[in-house]
Amino acid sequence: MAKEIERKFLVADDGWKAGVGTTSKFLQAYIATGEDRSIRVRIIDGERARLTIKLGRDLLVRDEFEYDIPVADAEELMQAAIGIVLEKSRHRVDYRGFTFEVDEFAGFYHGLIVAEVEMRSTEDRPDLPAWLGREVTGDKRYSNMAMATNEDLSAELGHGLSNPPL
Amino acid sequence: MAKEIERKFLVADDGWKAGVGTTSKFLQAYIATGEDRSIRVRIIDGERARLTIKLGRDLLVRDEFEYDIPVADAEELMQAAIGIVLEKSRHRVDYRGFTFEVDEFAGFYHGLIVAEVEMRSTEDRPDLPAWLGREVTGDKRYSNMAMATNEDLSAELGHGLSNPPL
């Protein structure tokens, strides 16, 4: 079990593109959700898959349990997804000792770009690159779980946005 | 992914005790449930643990995905159980080519004994030993998920029954 401590931001401009280290393609879906928990399936670059359980109401710090599973299992589990399967490219951008993960959505949320930085403790104060926009840590509308499973939200954010919402 | 095909029975008398092969002690809890799915954590004999996802509305045949996880993870996940943690001894009794699993509950459901037989196909017709009572396949009251998470049911079946309900 790991603690997940992260902050989340919208992205103001394309400045991040110059700093991309690695990129992975994610398919991501939820097979169970609750107010204080989610069970997520991810297929990474079409060749690896993981099952992740997140527990806890705190959007900044949560318990996270993660297990490798066969890709074939993940594909079957995605057939039983609650809501939609999210598609995104995750770009890793190192900036002053921290790695920012820039999630560029495709498919239903095409046009939406969100950046997360994972911290080692809640006391960490990462320097923020200039291309970050408004912080949305704790804004449930930008949780991937809500984006996948919440129909109202999909109507608000989805269907090919050309710019991230402000 | 495996298909789970099983029938479930109450137990009429102690005849099964003579045929017990192996016995395991289970702690079992649910971390997410839905009409057509459950995510279960089990600790077996205090030394192994498994995460199991079951999908499908059909109580006779369901898709089952099962993964070994660390016991420490299972213990943490059980802290977040929905409802109660079930305690039972699972006795395996071979009978004419099929294995009957006799679940003898302890703790909250002390006194309740239920037997299941797992089949390879829905066409299998296992011979039924004389110690089996009424068949309860498909009776949601005897699903472990309902027993763990349904408060009404706990009141009906739980608190130290001395005999299985008829």
From TrEMBL, chains A, B:
Residues 2-148 form the CYTH domain. The active site is at Y30. InterPro entries: CYTH-like_dom_sf, CYTH_domain, NeuTTM/CthTTM-like. SUPFAM superfamilies: CYTH-like phosphatases (SSF55154). Pfam families: CYTH (PF01928). This is CYTH domain-containing protein. It comes from Endobacterium cereale. The lineage of its organism: Bacteria, Pseudomonadati, Pseudomonadota, Alphaproteobacteria, Hyphomicrobiales.
